[in-house]
Every structure is written in structure tokens, then in C-alpha cells.
Design a protein that fits this description.
Elements: H1 7-22, E1 32-38, E2 41-45, E3 59-63, H2 76-85, E4 91-95, H3 98-106, E5 112-116, E6 132-138, H4 144-155, E7 163-166, E8 170-175, H5 178-201
Parallel strand pairs: 6-7
Antiparallel strand pairs: 1-2, 1-4, 2-3, 4-8, 5-6, 7-8
Bound molecules: the ligand CSCCC(=O)C(=O)COP(=O)(O)O and zinc ion (ZN).
Length: about 200
């Protein structure tokens, strides 16, 4: 039996949705969000809803280790794969930012976007700005089960960066809590925005 959906979890997801919408990160119903409910279950947003105006009925509780029920987002496997791979992952947020979408296309062949020497590296757990961060990029794929397997195989047990890009699509980030996932997403997005701006100015 599935556990009840805690109101606090819905509110965390809805609050992130409002924030993401205020930043222009979830245009045209894009994006999807999830939050671990317990060791075996997660709450995920339903498909096609306005992610800036999430209501309790827009979030479903599902089993992490079971097949994805109908009418949920096609991207649900990408969320569940993160929870399966790492028991410490408590929230996964996916948004469609311009910087993530553009840079993931420009660097798809390299399979990585690199940023150097930025203080914001610390937001994703890097100790010093004197570092190079490599944000992984994966080719987009409508077969999201195959895509999730490819992502997890490359990320491994201890990913260096708490996020990745899907080429021409957007960005995924995660953390132990919703606040951690949001901080990681904000940090990664800032790094990408800086990289894009530097390329423009050069
Ligand atoms: C309108 S964007 C296309 C689908 C997508 O990439 C996305 O993030 C939203 O999908 P969902 O099914 O979760 O609403
Ligand atoms: Zn998407």
C-alpha cells in the first residue's frame, strides 16, 4: 500500500514550483519535481500541469522500485533512478533554463560543460574557487528508461556534481533536502549563466 502524501511535501514541491516559475525556469508546463517520502516512496508532479501553480492533486506518491504508473511524467524514471542509486537523495528538481538548454547543445559532443575559477563552485560542494567543475551532458532520449540507465551508469556511486544536463532539454539537480536540491540547482544555473555570458562577450 502507498503511504499518504504529507501536506508538507506538497508544500515544499509547490513552493519550489512557484520559485522556479518566478525565475522563468518552467515555461509552457515544462519541468518536473520530486521529493522522497520514505525509503521506498517518492512524491512526483503529474504530467502537463503548470509547475508554477501546483495544487495537492497535482502530486502523486509512487513506489521507487516499481513500474511508473500511467499518466505520470515520462521523465519520472529519471527521478526514480536517482532515489534508487543513492539513499541520501531526498529531492530531485528538473527545469528548462535557457542557459542549460543552449549550453547543453553547444557542448553535447564534449559531453560536459566546464567552468573554472568561480566562487559559486562552493554552492555545489567544491571547496575552493581554484577548481574546474565539469557538468555532465547526456544526449536527450524519448526512451527515458534507457536514458535513466545511461545517466546512472555514468554518474556512478558518488557523482562529482549534484546535477546534469540533457542536451537541448534542460537541467536536473538533487540534494538531501528540497533546500539542498534548490541550492544546487541555483548554483549550477548561475555557473551556466556565467559561462554563456562569457562566451557571448568573447
Ligand atoms: C512542455 S516541455 C516537454 C516535457 C518536458 O520536458 C517537461 O519537463 C515536462 O514534462 P511533464 O510531463 O513532467 O509535465
Ligand atoms: Zn523536461
Amino acid at each position: 500500500m502507498l503511504p499518504a502524501l504529507p501536506g508538507a511535501v506538497v508544500e515544499e514541491i509547490a513552493a519550489f514550483g512557484r520559485y522556479a516559475a518566478s525565475r522563468g525556469w518552467v515555461p509552457a508546463t515544462s519541468g518536473n519535481f520530486s521529493r522522497r517520502v520514505d525509503a521506498r516512496h517518492a512524491a512526483v508532479t503529474r504530467s502537463g500541469i503548470d509547475k508554477g501553480a501546483i495544487a495537492p492533486g497535482d502530486v502523486a506518491v509512487i513506489a521507487i522500485d516499481e513500474p511508473v504508473p500511467p499518466r505520470l511524467s515520462a521523465e519520472t524514471p529519471l527521478h526514480l533512478a536517482r532515489y534508487r542509486s543513492d539513499a541520501a537523495v531526498g529531492a530531485v528538481f528538473h527545469v528548462h533554463t535557457v542557459a542549460a538548454t543552449v549550453l547543453s547543445r553547444l557542448y553535447e559532443r564534449e559531453g560536459v560543460v566546464r567552468t573554472d575559477g568561480l566562487e559559486m563552485h562552493k554552492a555545489i560542494g567544491v571547496r575552493t574557487h581554484e577548481s574546474t567543475v565539469e557538468i555532465p551532458i547526456f544526449a536527450n532520449d524519448q526512451d527515458t528508461f534507457a536514458l535513466a540507465a545511461r545517466v546512472e551508469a555514468r554518474l556512478g556511486a558518488d557523482p562529482a556534481v549534484p546535477g546534469y544536463l540533457l542536451a537541448g532539454h534542460g537541467i536536473y539537480a538533487w540534494g538531501a533536502t528540497a533546500a539542498d536540491a534548490r541550492r544546487h540547482l541555483e548554483g549550477l544555473e548561475f555557473l551556466l549563466a556565467c559561462h554563456l555570458e562569457e562566451r557571448r562577450l568573447r
